[in-house]
Each structure stands twice: as structure tokens, then as C-alpha cells.
Amino acid sequence: MTSLDPAALLDQPPLGAAELVELEALAARILRTTHDVVVLQAEAILALEAIARSVAARGRRALNIVTGPYGRIFGDWLEQSGAEVTTLAVEFDHVVTVEQVAHVIERSRPDIVAVVQAEAATGGTNPVAEIAALARQAGALVVVDAVAAVGAEPVATDTWGLDIVAIGPQKGLAGPAGVSAVSISEQAWAAIESNPAAPRVSSLSLLDWRDEWLRTDRTAIPGTPSVLETRAFTAAARRVLGEGLPAVQDRHRRAAAAAVAGARALGLEPWQADSAGYAPVVTTLRAPDGAPADAVLGGILSRGNGPLRNQLLRVNHTGRAAALEPVLDAVAGLGTLLAADGTRIASAQDAAREAWQR
Ligand SMILES: *Cc1c(COP(=O)(O)O)cnc(C)c1O
Predict the structure, then answer these.
(1) Per-residue pLDDT tens for 111-167?
(2) pTM flag (> 0.90)
(3) 356 C-beta closer than 6 A to ligand 1
(4) N or C: the chain end with fewer CB closer than 10 Å?
(5) Which residues of 314-347 are buried (b: 16+ CB within 10 A; e: fewer)?
(6) What does the alpha-carbon distance between residue 325 and residue 58 come to, in Å, rounded to a whole number?
(7) 43 C-beta closer than 6 A to ligand 1
């Protein structure tokens, strides 16, 4: 247990309005957007529910792309909110192709296209720039869950034409869970405002934040903000922007390449079927036959979650762990799991080092 000065946790001054304004600006820089950014006082999963319930309405058609568990939940919320949902789902060891999305957009003529950019649970990343271009051509709003993508790979909100993007600090930005951010275009605001079922007077209300904060002089924060998490998100955003987003993304890319190379040298196979879909945030591997199911994993190595528990292993080279040393430790851990000898482990680590350098 790390021992923290209790005063750092307990005796902080209240959050100033200027601090929230600064965090919104930092999040906008990270998202590369001039759109409004709403900071929600809750974990990203609540932000995603707020988005789904704000845009979905009876009489609206949504295309929901499902390549992992988060996309599936998002579709449930869209349906509960009355939208007519077309689901494009693939096996969780695949991501979607642009051709698949083009075909379903043509057939279903959606008003909304929702996609998870990167799925930490499956280690897959979808071609969001191309999907967004197709969706916009069809006149649909583009909604992106970039929680696991941000920091690990580019999220170019304005360049790609993304209407709504959700992020949280707890993955590639190396911050805490507990506060999240959502960017919202003018078109998206119009779609939310014209939805009679969009939440109001609710923790799920984006409109409340717009009307009671963004469109005010921003001197009085509505409600009681989480002081610690909001300040920690700001610290994480400053640290990432201080290092430079491209440098942070480059660490994730190298870490993923090193993890794949080390795992392959040990005879393990990536979980994702196609290398184009490997996510820089987490590397997933097919769980080896014969590896003890109760094997102790540690450091940045973990099992899959839920139904993927026995099917895949995760190398969580995420945030500060997007570095060579943690990946080398993970490669050694994988070698131990496979009962590989020291020479084999050392050469797998060499393969990882070499891939890191490229
Ligand atoms: C981690 C993650 C989230 C956020 O989930 P939390 O439970 O709030 O951490 C949302 N979407 C994706 C794709 C994620 O990987």
C-alpha cells in the first residue's frame, strides 16, 4: 500500500471554476477539437450511457458496430432508448472492415453510427477515420468511444469529423477513473436538443451541463464536483501534453510491437486475427493450450475479462506501462507460464527489444 499524506487526500481546497475550464481545454487539445467538451463527474461508462440515451430516440435509426463488450452495452442503451438499431457484430477476435461498414450503411441508412475505436478487452482497434467518412457521407452522426484509444493512438476529432467522442483518463492517459470527458459537435447538440427523450435533470444529462455550465459565464460549477479525480485528470492531461501526444502514442506503438514479437518468439499467437487490427493500448494473445488455468499472472499480464477469461491473455502496456521494461517483464512472465527455459526467455526478450527499436 502506498502511504499518502492524508492532507493530500482530505484537505484539498474546493475545485475552482477555472480549474474545470482548464481541464475542458486540455481535453479539447487531446481530442484535437474545437467542439464543446463536457467533463462529466463520473467514470467513462456513465458518459457512454449519457451519450446513448441523449442521441437515441424513437424513429431514429442507429448502426451500432460491435467488436467487443463495450460496443454491445452501447447497443443495449440505444435500444432501450427507442432507436431502431442495426447491429454490425463480428467475432471478438476481429475488428470490422471498411467494406462491411459501407455495406451495412447502404442497407440500413442510419441517422447515427456508433463505434468503439479501441477495445482494451479484445486488443482490437477499428478503422475509425474511414468509418467516420462513410457515416458522414450518409448524413449520419458519428459517435465514438475512444476511452481505450486516447493516448495510445491518434483521435483526430475534427479532421475525421467525429460528432461525439468519449474519453476517460484511466487508460492511455495514465490517470484515474472517476471523471470523463465528451466532445460534442454543433450537429450533435442539435440532435440531442431535438430529442424529447434526452435526459434532463439527471446525472446522464449532457443538456444540463450545456445549459447550466457551458452556456453560462462558467463561474459556478453545478453540483459537487469530485475534487481529487478532477485534479488528477488535469495532472494526467498536462503530463501527457508535456511529453507530447505523438511521443506517448509512439511508446504505446513500440510496446505493442515488442509484446507481439516477444510472445511470437515464445510460440504464442496474437488474439486478433489481422495485424491491421492490433490495438496499441493492450496486446491480446490466444491463451495457450495446456497452460494452467489458475496460473498466477502478475505485473501487466492478466487474463481476459468475463467470457474471454479462458480464451485470451492480456499484456496491459497501457499509460505509464507503455515502456520497454514492463513489456520485458511480461515476456518473462509468459515464458514462465509456458515453462520455457532461461535461454528461450532471453531470446524472446531480445526479439521484444528489437521490435521496440524499430
Ligand atoms: C475501459 C473502457 C471504457 C471505460 O470503462 P470503465 O469501466 O469506465 O473503465 C469504455 N470503453 C472502452 C472501449 C474501454 O476500453
Answers:
(1) 999 999 999 999 999 999 999 999 999 999 999 999 999 999 999 999 999 999 999
(2) yes
(3) no
(4) N
(5) bbbbbbebbbbebbbbbbbbbbebbebeeeebee
(6) 51
(7) yes
pLDDT attached to residue 8: 86
The grid cell for 189 is: 447538440
* Ligand 1 close to Cβ of residue 168 (< 6 A): yes
What's the gap in Å between 45 CA and the centre of ligand 1? 6
Are the CB atoms for 326 and 300 separated by under 8 Å?
yes
Predicted pLDDT of residue 3: 75
Rounded Cα–Cα distance for residues 129 and 131 (Å): 6
Mapped onto helix, strand or coil, the DSSP state of residue 143 is: strand
Counting DSSP H helices and E strands in the chain, the numbers are 13, 12
Sign of dihedral through CA atoms 29, 33, 36, 40? negative
Closest C-alpha to ligand 1, atom 10: 147
Say yes or no: CB of residue 170 within 6 Å of ligand 1.
yes
What distance in Å separates the CA atoms of residue 345 and residue 337, rounded to the nearest whole number? 11
Ligand 1 centre to CA of 348 (Å) is 31
Q: What residues in the chain have per-residue pLDDT under 50?
A: none
Say yes or no: CB of residue 145 within 6 Å of ligand 1: yes
Q: Is 73 left (phi over 0), alpha (psi -120 to 50) or beta?
A: alpha
Q: Please report the pLDDT score of residue 1 as a whole number.
A: 53
- At residue 288, the pLDDT reads 86
Distance 99 CA to ligand 1 centre (A): 27
Mutate to test the pocket of ligand 1, among 64, 147, 155 (most ligand atoms within 8 A of CB): 147
Q: Please tell me the distance from the alpha carbon of residue 108 to that of residue 297, in angstroms, as a whole number.
A: 44
Q: Is 177 in the pocket of ligand 1 (CB under 6 A)?
A: yes
